Amino acid sequence: MVFSSLTFLCLFLPIVIGLHTLVKNTRARNAILLIASLLFYAWGEPVWILAMIFSTLVNYVSARVIAGAQSQRASKAALIIGVLISLSSLVFFKYSAFLVNSVCALAGSSFRMTAPKLPIGISFYTFQIITYTVDVYRGEARLQKNPFWLLLYVSLFPQLIAGPIVRFKQVAEAIEGREVTRAGFGEGFFRFCLGLGKKVLLANLCGEVLATLPTGAEMSCLSGWLSAILFSFQIFFDFSGYSEMAIGLGRMLGFRFAENFDAPFISKSVSEFWRRWHISLGTFFREYVYIPLGGNRVGTGRWIFNMIVVWGLTGIWHGASWNYLLWGLYSGFFLILERLVLRRVLDKTPSVIRHILVLLVMVASMVIFRNESFAALGSQLKAMFAPWTVPASDPFAVYALKSNPVLLIACVVCSLPLRKWAVKKFRERRERGKRNVLRPYGKAVLAVLILGLSVMFLVGQSFNPFLYFRF
Amino acid sequence: MRKYILPAVALIALLLLFLVGAYELFLTPDGPAFSETENRMLAERPDFTFRDVFSGSFSDGTERFLSDRFPARAGIIRATQSLRQIGNLASLDDYMRVAENDVPDMQYQEEVSDSEQIVTPRPAKTAVPTPEPTPQPAETPIESASAAAETPSPTATPEPTPTPEPTPTPRPTKEPVNPDDYPSSMQCRMLSGDGNRTVYKGEKKLLKKIGALLDAYASLLPEDGVLSFTIVPYSSRANRLLTYKDPQGFSSEVEPFIHAITADNVSAFCTVELLGKPLMDGEYVFYRSDMHWTVYGAYLVISRMMEEAGETLPPYDAFPKEQEYPFLGTIYRDKPTKQMEKNPDTLDILTPTHPVRVLRYETAEQYQEIPLLDRNANARDRYTIYLGGPGNLTVIERTDGGSGENKTCFVLADSYGLCTVPFFAEAYDRVVLYDPRFYTKNKIGSVSEVIERFGVTDMYVIVGDTHVFFDDSFISSCNKQY
Q1: N or C: which end of chain A has fewer CB within 10 A?
Q2: Is A318 a catalytic residue?
Q3: What's the CA gap between A411 and A235, in Å, rounded?
Q4: Domain residues of chain A, as ranges?
Q5: A405, A437, A440 ranked by CB distance to B89: nearest
Q6: Do B231 and B218 meet the contact criterion of CB atoms below 8 Å apart?
Q7: Is the pTM value of this prediction over 0.80?
């Protein structure tokens, strides 16, 4: 089930929130949430729920062994076994066909393996459960003795299929006991509506316009750029919208999830962009891969190696295809370049130029991300960066541009940190002793307006793909 | 007070959403419903079976059902369409340029599922279907209609000395061709002094698939039965020819290829070639504000196709005719502009010269009589005045006794076939109209059974280019329903 569906909005959400609000006992609330989360996951693909339960059980046992181990060696062995089993499940479902087919292609064999069906959200829940086992091993998280509560952590429906990647220690206390306050509930509802609007009113519409534009060799310079910009907006609003809905739902249920996006398009450097984009994934790779490899407290050569490993993994995490690996390495390359070569130059460059450069680098990276075929990737990059080789425009791009100015303006405006600015402004007013009389009314009106519009656009809208399902 | 507002609004919004969901789930009436705005059947309540739940089709079906049966859905869709028009700066010319360049070009999918396997022709027939030995019960209209057509009247006296039948002219045999000699992709082009432009194009694999389907249908016809096939282009693409310098007409490789690779009793006609000269002569063969051909354009093509089957249509002016003006069709519906409002179309409304009745079947046993012309047709799509738009199997039959020859034609068509009904009903005693988009095989039976039951003598396949080349679901539906 996805949040931006009528089944979720009209049936699942009201029933679960209603039951959760009516019941005050934490154990009963957890039971409701666990059943609801398993139903949420099983709604589309009931069979794969077993893979998730299996992964949870393996790590539950690993963590118990780690906690009860008499020696460091036994503890480490339990950790490695738990992590390896979880990762092998991910590798089998997500990468086996890619690996086998790549090897066969290299060996000149015509054999091609059909990819197994990918369980929804496997990349997210695998990483989550790994953080639990590793954190228990490191002594950063306490052992969860109740396997059902551990399953609740893994399967918690707000963040189950598209993140953010929540670490066990962030929610452990809330699982043991939480309070849903009026303010938290209202704020959660507001954030949920904002996220829903981003997904339904911006990401989906960008996707619709994108689908009308030419692809491959038929691209003009205008359609090449427009496709790249629209796709950047689509993926940003799709994923940040989903993260915002997850954060909002968490608040409505008494959980606090960390922010996952922080207006990345206003960044003035590539490293700043990655600190603002998919923060929970960046944190995971920093904490569980980059720092164990030595981080930046190593020589330049080793640091470059660490960066290549981390960004190669980040790329391939997004999908089993060469373009994702290339996308990760491309991002890593610019981070290395920025730190080793460009930092001093950029420090002296005006902000506007830096901002434009970052946008260019990131929009080009989205082109790599989008095109799984290298031929299509080459065509689009050629259309964008060698405009003399292709027509300047085409009727489809002109029509898309002229018929969607409101959408494009809305995308630009909504990619700015408006909420942050508004919160800062209200805080300043309050500190000056002025009351923000209209604030709650404004939030209520805005939430209802966005929710109403989103439901309207969902009705009769068959085009509702969720991009991050693939990851 | 202020701190209660947002949580209270949240609770009220959730309650309202739940009430809508519960209403839809428990109080929406069962049964089929049709969306005129979208020209499709709306989703029905999904069956709750373990198989469907485990395959995920129950969840998909529930979402489709909730979406399709949402209260005031048509109004909501209109409202969202209007909202999306806010700030739209595109002109009609921009839109038409897109329509012109939106060339149907479907990439043939190599992998076809079992249900989409190409049907194979049956062995060639040598005679009309054998009449049923006993009359069928009246409660099975399809079968009884067939039986009536095929069972000799009990009062009929056999000819004492049968007169020798005139020897039919043997159908010319097509030269065998090797598909490998043809290019991998074939096109229909418009020719002009500005250069040639593609109207539609298709891969050879797809065209061979279409050829195999046509052969399969043709094998169901009697020995002298003829199958005629044509592809109708989107009107704006065809009309665009007139905007180019020195327009010279159309030329297509698609239909000649299909003609060449199919059986001897299959003929493929190129609509744009047939209508190219009338179009350039200023004749009104394609609408401006609607995606379809005009009734007159359809007449020109159908009369040529009927010649192949040995039928002759009376002149166009011989048909009882009304006109509707102004007529603003599907292009206007999608892109309403002042420019088009000032230059609307005229819709000819024709009827056959003899009385007919129209039966629309919902199952093999159930049908209802509908008017040939639906005077209450959707004001936003008056083209559907013919039969009230496309639907499940529709049978049009003469009520004046007919020609006595029991000539029955089977017309496989999408919406382009609607306005052809008066012409087929003029020449044939019975017309069986089949639109794969609305046909329910599980209720009516396979199409091959229907063709046999009605004793079909000729067949016509009239499909819009978008259905042939944009979306292979149309051809797949034909295969599945065969």
Answers
A1: C
A2: yes
A3: 12
A4: 6-178, 184-470
A5: A405
A6: no
A7: no
